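Sample intake — NAD dependent epimerase/dehydratase family protein
Collected from: Roseisalinus antarcticus
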Amino acid sequence: MKKIVLTGAHGALGTVLRGPLSRMADTLLSTDIAGPPKTLMDNETWVHADLSDYAQIAPLLEGAEMVVHFGAIVDEKPFEELLGPNFVGAYNIWEAAHQHGLRRVVYASSIHAVGLWETNAGIDTEAPQRPDTFYGLAKCFAEDLGRMYWEKRGLEAVCLRILSCTPEPQNARALGTWLSHRDLVQLVTRAIETPQTGFTVAFGVSGNDRAPVSNARVPFLGYRPKDNAENWAPSLLAMARPDPMDPAQACLGGPFASVPLGESGVAGIRAMSTGERDGT
């Protein structure tokens, strides 16, 4: 490809993706409200921009074939704080992609779009949305936006519902929800390289024996995860055992399923295990 745009490029997952994406295009345009990092890839351009400002975002997509949209506030906040970056920002990306004739948006959705589903429900990608927070609601909004832009304007979208993406699984819950960095890169690569996707939802989860969700309906993406959290089971199960009556343990959204609306879910995750980063 001539050009790929990556939003949220200074975030934890955007940082993982910059190198692989730079090798897939002549030019990688990375953008974030933070940064730039100390070093850039040889073919990478960095632009500081606010997702909530269409005038700043739209010009960045000119000449691109695809945009990998990972930019957002990555925690539960009051609705008013999420409105600009997470809701309006998603609209700005899709509208700019349409205006500049892009082929596809690859979007970092989240398990929190379905976070109030029970962990043991065994849902697949056709399960109805059940957001657990305003943050999860923003992911539902962007998914619906993606479906509408595909059906009304022919702009493809692959929405990746990321579970828990960390270098290693951090607690007993992550035995099911973990997405390794290697599998994240593979999943995003498949979302870009698949010839035709239309509107597609896929779960961002590694090949865990205890994975609580299924990608069986989207085999055409060719995503075949390489990693399995079960390798960490002995040490993780030696930690505090989950309480099956606690929504933070019984629902897919983890602590996001139990916090009051507008209050941090990441804080609950940190209480479960130091340093875990859930979703995106």
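Post-analysis note: The two ends are 26 Å apart (CA to CA).
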